[in-house]
Amino acid sequence: METKQRKANANIKAKATKPAQAVNLEELESLSYLQMAWRKFRRHKLAIVGAIMTIILLILAIFAPLITPYSFEELDLGNMFAPPSWDHIFGTDELGQDVFTRILYGGRISLLVGFASAFTAVVFGILIGSLAGFYGGWLDNLLMRFTDMMMTIPTLPLLIVLSSLLGGSVANIILLMIIFSWMTTARLVRGAVLTFKQQEFIEAARALGVSSGRIIFRHLLPNAMAPAVVSATLMVGGNIIWESSLSFLGLGIQPPTPSWGNMLSRAQEYIWTAPWLAVWPGLFILFTVLGFNFLGDGLRDALDPRSKLG
User: Fold this and answer.
1) Crossing angle of helices 276-303/99-135, nearest 10°?
2) What is the pLDDT of residue 165?
3) What is the pLDDT of residue 208?
4) Is 91 in contact with 82 (CB distance < 8 Å)?
5) Burial readout 102-131 (b: 16 or more C-beta within 10 A, e: otherwise)
6) Which CATH number among 1.20.1070.10, 2.60.120.260, 1.10.3720.10, 3.40.50.720 corresponds to the domain 36-303?
């Protein structure tokens, strides 16, 4: 009797759960690709943390003149090496300049270099990868061998040499970041294009006489954008590290224009007497790179159609 009762209860539970499962399946089938990506992204806790950190940093950088009452060039020689206080929440440096103000304005420079170089490098990488993947043959071999050659170059030593020759202006730093950042995106986009160009919808477009340019930009690239978006997100953090490294070595953004890297470089002499000069720019670099990496990881999982909707 007990066995029969257990079977009956199990059947009742199975019948009760079937409609709910069917509703969930129907709901998932009705979602678009972007809606499913957004659902997966929301469930990635570190990605949400990264997005919040990134938004906060952007707000601080954009609205810096409204947030701080000081100018990043303002000197106060009577208030040098002041520790953090209500008047100067991050303290002052060896020239009496407000460290919090310079952090905000330095964030403008570092984020500008990161975003501008990453966006341009991704566009260039998309162009190279889509041409190589779509046309194949000698063009693919030429472009990919050039990409391989660029990837074998030791980046930091060459960046040091070129930045010392060209100068450490913002435009020159962005140009150098672009030159050495596009290769990964090109390879990712090429792989995606090689996959999608064999699909039936591309064959149908060719049969209808659609031009190659329209196939690439209207049909292939929208489907190959997911790896490019992830690559761009991760590239921003990487390029901020490169800029900070060059500025730390004295070859990047030059004072009096603040950047987190040259603030760290100036703080070396005072690390024991005024440690806040090194702590704050170091923490902002750390949180910025972590935020973009968390965001990139979340976008990678959300935009991957093979990942499960948890």
Assistant:
1) 30
2) 83
3) 78
4) yes
5) bbbbbbbbbbbbbbbbbebbbebbbbbbbb
6) 1.10.3720.10
